[in-house]
Amino acid sequence: MSYYPLTSIPDYYGIDALLTEEHKLIRQSVRDWVESFVMPQIDHAAQNHTDLPGLMKELGKIGALGPYIPVEYGGSGLDQISYGLIMQELERGDSAVRSAASVQSSLVMFPINEFGSEEQKRKYLPQLASGEMIGSFGLTEPNHGSDPGSMETYFKDMGDHYLLNGAKMWITNSPLCDIAVVWAKNEEGKIQGLIVERGMEGFTTPETHNKWSLRASKTGELVFNDVKVPKENLLPGVTGLKGPLSCLNSARYGISWGVIGAAIDCYCTAVQYSKERRQFGNPIGSYQLQQKKLAEFLTEITKAQLLCLQLGNLKNDHKASPAQISMAKRNNVKMAIDIARESRQILGGMGIMGEFPMMRHAANLESVITYEGTHDVHLLITGMDITGINAF
Ligand SMILES: Cc1cc2nc3c(=O)[nH]c(=O)nc-3n(C[C@H](O)[C@H](O)[C@H](O)COP(=O)(O)OP(=O)(O)OC[C@H]3O[C@@H](n4cnc5c(N)ncnc54)[C@H](O)[C@@H]3O)c2cc1C
């Protein structure tokens, strides 16, 4: 259970009035699920570096996997603001839970829905939506992170199948995945997407251990050693870097919303604690230094909420540019990590304990500020959008 009453979750600028009844209902149902499923076990899972058992099927049950995927393929056909609100509530629980839903929705279901054949959509999307099948997304490689266009993983046309070789690193859910959407170069050096299935000979998914961040999420490698991939597993609808980048746009949009949830969890915990904890005869919340922190947290959360709401409107109208999404991802993740770090101080020594969420959120957000484009990379994208000059 959360340490603060859920009725204290901030809506300082009356943003709820801009949401539909359906948006609020969806948010409430995910909020309730996070309280009952995530909150009671998340500290234990993070401390013990294990995932939450049955998480993907639970996410499937509440409609958090592929919320905007059409109903005919098992999705919920919801709009982008609903997707954002779901991500916000999940990340109030933990970034690992939001990451699981983000990867499955935006990095696995999205490319299959956008670029897949009709057979691929019917074969994979319903099972991914229910969480019976777990997907991963392979773009990053040991030698190429911020610069995925230089990837080395490649495939050759062998007549009746493709032969895939290479390795991907830092892959969310790789040790658990049933399928991986893998981006690799064809013989002309052009990037294409392949659906690789667990069980294909030469395909392994070793786990990456000893993380200090996203400890309730499994991360690993995807290794391809002469993997024979059937020709029908090539995504036919896209060639070039725009394939993976369009997936990242969708995921980065979800992250912009998600991290508001982590910030809200830290903010609400700090407000509650500052009213209860007394030093020098008064609640610490009565001191100006602590009030300054709380006031700045709420200001930053409110700005981030407004940024996301308008970005969601643009996205619903198919008008959100990649640079606009970069700005929101960069701003909101920094906002959340700053609030996690500062709010921890309001709790003094108690702030380092697992009973309170700040250390876990702060550690998680170190990954979030790095993956899906680092903080620096998003700044370069904004700089390029302003000047027209590529500074990469
Ligand atoms: C927990 C976790 C989960 C992840 N999940 C996935 C996943 O599911 N699938 C996937 O494909 N990837 C995933 N990633 C990988 C992630 O996207 C990469 O880590 C990220 O893109 C950065 O790549 P890198 O780690 O190789 O850092 P690098 O690219 O080596 O960057 C190192 C530093 O150099 C800076 N830098 C790079 N280029 C420039 C430049 N031109 N100018 C100035 N500074 C620069 C960066 O900002 C960064 O600070 C995950 C990562 C983590 C940590």
TrEMBL record:
Cofactor(s) listed in the protein's UniProt record: FAD
Domain Acyl-CoA dehydrogenase/oxidase N-terminal span(s) in chain numbering: 20-132
Residue ranges of every copy of the Acyl-CoA dehydrogenase/oxidase C-terminal domain listed in the record: 240-384
Assigned keywords, A-Z: FAD, Flavoprotein, Oxidoreductase, Transit peptide
InterPro entries cross-referenced by the UniProt entry: Acyl-CoA_DH_CS, Acyl-CoA_Oxase/DH_mid-dom, Acyl-CoA_Oxase/DH_mid-dom_sf, AcylCo_DH-like_C, AcylCo_DH/oxidase_C, AcylCoA_DH/ox_N, AcylCoA_DH/ox_N_sf, AcylCoA_DH/oxidase_NM_dom_sf
UniProt domain Acyl-CoA oxidase/dehydrogenase middle: residue ranges: 136-227
EC number: 1.3.8.6
Name this polypeptide is given: glutaryl-CoA dehydrogenase (ETF)
